[in-house]
Each structure stands twice: as structure tokens, then as C-alpha cells.
TrEMBL record:
Biased composition (Low complexity): 456-470
Organism superkingdom: Bacteria
Name of this protein: Multidrug resistance protein MdtA
GO cellular component entries: efflux pump complex
Keyword 4Fe-4S: no
């Protein structure tokens, strides 16, 4: 064996034996160590939480929206006849107040007075023609009666001559003359009867002529009345388009008058607001409304009523529902000691709709609403997750619709944060300091909102600027 074969034999036989021996020693040493003792998991305690109670909402619920006052109606007065303006009232000026029936304008009535007089003569002449025809008819009837008597006498003469002729006591010529006289009398009767029928036809024609003359006379009198333009209602003149001694054409606009007996307010409601108002159908309930206007740090209010939808459907641009509110007495303020103020067009106002909820509502703080529209409820000292239907959230108050809901009134709702919240998690009540707007009741908080239940919306009037405020 030479020296070169020694390393080869060592790597082939001795090295593997050394590796196996080291591995066996390592396994033996690891098995000889003592296993550490397992610690028992600690008993998990319940998580202390703060609670509030869901309280039922009672009474009315105010929905507050912004709106703008608009005229109840404004009417454009137009001339019905043409002519020169011979009178113009001083009240017919922008900003002037006019009373119902007040004379505002007069057109020169001379032509219309002449036309009325002419047609009155036409009517009188038609009446005279009818009277003359009636008189001729009566005379003809009397003559006809006489001729009928003559015919009766002529027939007796003919019968007498026939008896005489049978005994040859008269001549044939005498008999012919008597018969000829009878035929002549009968001819006169026929002519007079035809004349009576002609009188009936002429009477109908004359009666139609009289009625036509009366209609023309009525139209002429209407034109004469229309020469004077009067205020159709009490209101304020908005615009004037005519001056005295000016020529006025039929159909031309004279002035614009706004009716001040009532004022309407145009507002817009969000879709969720309609759930408090609309129970079905297209008509809205006539609920009471308070319209408020702020000026110089003072608030003025008017009583009103929800009138109707302004059209039908949802506004495509704002996705709101336009409505109209009617103020029956815009000059009388309610519950205001700041003096009197009339509600005028263009005022940006605040509208409070006092509605009665159609379904039961529960009132809770907004902070208890969890992601996914859920709340955490403690039942049997365990956390349960309930999905809720939120009717409205405003000013830190959440109104929950409890109709057909598993959420019960006065149920304990968890208001504090809970890590890793999941159904069945053990929780317990703790006593804590009362927060603003809540009072302590045992080991939970009873939520009592200390401000009025008011729902506000940022929906703006479709015709007003989105940044305008009342």
C-alpha cells in the first residue's frame, strides 16, 4: 500500500462511520433533555362595555329644508280692444297696491258706444218687422175665416140649385155661375192659407235675424265694457307697459299684477324624507308647516301647509322631489315678538315640516352605528350583531325603523369600541360617567336627546343657487 491510497481509504470507509456516529450522538442527546411543562391557557374574562338604550320616538318629527318664496299667482293684464288710452290710474305703476275691481285703464270708448247704439237700432227694427208680420198674419187669419164662411154659403147655394135643377126649376147657366162663385171662394181660401204658411217661414227668419242682432249687441256691449281694464284681484303691480294717450292694440300686455292674498314656497325634499310623508299614491298629506326667515338677527315665522308636489317625479339634476308649500296669510307672523313682516317673493326661507312618522322609530346616538349599517347589541351577556334600517341620521341622532325588525325598544346597545367584535363574544356592563345628552341608569346609559328632534337636509331649491342660504 503506497501513501497515495491512504487518503482514499480514509474518505471511503472512515469518514462515513464518523458521520453516522455524530448523528447518533446528537439524537441521543436531544432525547435525554426534559420536555418543558405546558402552561394552561388563562380563563378569558368578559369585555367591559358601555351601553345605551334604544328609546321609542314619540310625537311629531320636524324635517327642515331650505326654500324660496314665489308668487301664488301673477297675472298679465292684456287689452281686449284697441284704441287710444284716455285714462291711466296712478296706481298702475310698479310697486303700487291695487284693490280688486279698481279701475286701472280706459280706452277711448267712442267707437264702441256708436256700435252699441247702431246695433240697438238694428234690434229695434227687427222687433218692428216681427210685429208687422204678426199683424199681417192676424189680418190674413180674419180674412180666411170670412172666406170660409163665404164658401159655406156658396155650397148651400150649389145644393139648392141642384135640387131646383132636378125639378127643372132653374137653368144650367145659373147653376154654373153659382159653382164658379164657390170655386173662386175656395181659391181665395187656398191663397190665404199659403200666405199664412209664408208668414210662419218669414217669422222664423225674422226671429233668427233678431237673435243675431242681439248677439252682435251683446258683443258690442262687451267690447264697450272691455274698454275699461280693472284689477281682477287685490295685489301689487309688478310691471307696467302702457302710458296715457298711447295707442293700445288688442292682445297687448298692459301690466303684471301679483296676487298677495297667498304666497307659495318652493322647496326640495330628499328621497328619504318622503318616507315620512308619502304613504302611497301621488298626493301628499296636508301636514302643517312653519316657514321661517332670518333678518338682522331676528327670526320671523308664518303658518303654512304642505300643498302638493311641484310636478311629478324626481328632479333629474338634483335627484330631489320638488314640493310647494302654501302660506295662506303672508302678512301675519306667528309667535314673533319682533314686529310684523310680510313674506315676499325671492326670500330664502327655512321650512319646517311637522310630520307624523308612518312607522315606529327608535332613537339612538349616531356613534352606535357600525360599518355595514349594523349595531352591537348585548343579549345574555354576549355581543350580537344586528343589521338595522336607518331612516335618518342628523345632528348626531340616528332614527332607526323598527318595523319588522329584530331590534326591540329599550334594548341594550353597545356604544364603546370592542376589539375583534364577533357574535357570541362575552361582554359585561360597566358603570361610567354620564356623557352629555345621556343620564346614568344602573350600569348602562339611557340615551335622551336634549335637543328637539329635527331633521335637516341640504337639498336646495332647483332654481336657487346651491350656496344660497336663508
Amino acid at each position: 500500500m503506497n501513501k497515495r491510497q491512504i487518503p482514499i481509504l480514509f474518505l471511503r470507509y472512515v469518514a462515513p462511520l464518523l458521520v453516522l456516529g455524530c448523528a447518533g450522538w446528537f439524537v441521543y442527546s436531544m432525547g435525554a433533555q426534559q420536555r418543558p411543562k405546558r402552561k394552561k391557557p388563562p380563563v378569558r374574562k368578559s369585555i367591559p362595555v358601555e351601553l345605551v338604550q334604544a328609546r321609542p320616538h314619540t310625537g311629531t318629527l320636524d324635517i327642515v329644508v331650505s326654500g324660496v318664496a314665489i308668487p301664488y299667482r301673477d297675472v298679465q293684464l292684456a287689452a281686449r280692444v284697441s284704441g287710444e288710452v284716455v285714462f291711466k290710474s296712478e296706481s298702475l305703476s310698479p310697486g303700487q297696491v291695487v284693490d280688486e275691481g279698481e279701475l286701472l285703464l280706459r280706452v277711448d270708448p267712442s267707437d264702441y258706444e256708436i256700435e252699441v247704439a247702431r246695433l240697438e237700432q238694428e234690434v229695434a227694427r227687427a222687433k218692428l218687422d216681427i210685429e208687422r208680420l204678426q199683424l199681417d198674419k192676424e189680418n190674413t187669419q180674419r180674412v180666411l175665416a170670412i172666406n170660409q164662411d163665404i164658401v159655406t154659403v156658396r155650397r148651400r147655394d150649389v145644393q139648392r140649385l141642384q135640387r131646383l135643377q132636378n125639378v127643372n126649376a132653374t137653368s144650367a147657366s145659373e147653376s154654373d155661375s153659382v159653382e164658379l162663385a164657390l170655386l173662386s171662394a175656395m181659391q181665395q181660401i187656398t191663397s190665404q192659407e199659403n200666405q199664412l204658411r209664408t208668414f210662419d217661414s218669414q217669422s222664423k227668419t225674422m226671429q233668427t235675424t233678431l237673435e243675431l242682432a242681439n248677439l252682435q249687441l251683446r258683443l258690442a256691449k262687451l267690447d264697450l265694457e272691455r274698454a275699461e281694464i280693472k284689477a281682477p284681484f287685490s295685489g301689487v303691480v309688478i310691471a307696467n307697459h302702457v302710458e296715457q294717450n298711447g295707442m293700445l292694440a288688442a292682445g297687448a300686455v298692459v301690466a303684471t299684477i301679483e296676487d298677495t292674498s297667498k304666497v307659495e314656497v318652493r322647496a326640495s325634499l330628499r328621497g328619504e324624507d318622503m318616507s315620512f310623508l308619502q304613504s302611497g299614491g301621488y298626493e301628499l298629506p296636508q301636514i302643517p308647516v312653519t316657514v321661517e326667515y332670518d333678518r338682522a338677527g331676528q327670526t320671523y315665522a308664518w303658518n303654512a301647509v304642505l300643498s302638493r308636489q311641484d310636478g311629478l317625479g324626481i328632479d333629474e339634476k338634483t335627484r330631489t322631489i320638488p314640493v310647494r308649500i302654501c302660506v295662506d296669510n303672508p302678512t301675519q307672523n306667528c309667535g314673533s315678538s319682533n314686529g310684523s313682516l310680510a313674506l315676499l317673493r325671492g326670500m330664502f326661507v327655512r321650512v319646517r315640516l311637522h310630520c307624523e312618522p308612518q312607522q315606529p322609530l327608535a332613537v339612538v346616538p349616531e356613534s352606535v352605528i357600525r360599518p355595514g349599517k349594523t349595531i352591537w347589541v348585548m343579549r345574555d351577556d354576549q355581543l350580537q350583531i344586528e343589521r338595522v334600517r336607518i331612516a335618518r341620521i342628523e345632528d348626531g341622532i340616528a332614527y332607526l325603523n323598527t318595523h319588522n325588525s329584530s331590534l326591540k325598544m329599550n334594548e341594550q346597545i353597545i356604544s364603546s369600541p370592542v376589539p375583534n367584535a364577533k357574535p357570541g363574544l362575552a361582554v359585561s356592563m360597566i358603570a361610567n360617567k354620564p356623557r352629555r345628552g345621556a343620564t346614568l341608569s344602573g350600569s348602562h346609559q339611557e340615551y335622551r336627546p336634549n335637543r328637539p328632534k329635527v331633521l335637516t337636509t341640504s337639498a336646495t331649491v332647483s332654481t336657487a343657487s346651491a350656496s344660497a342660504r336663508p
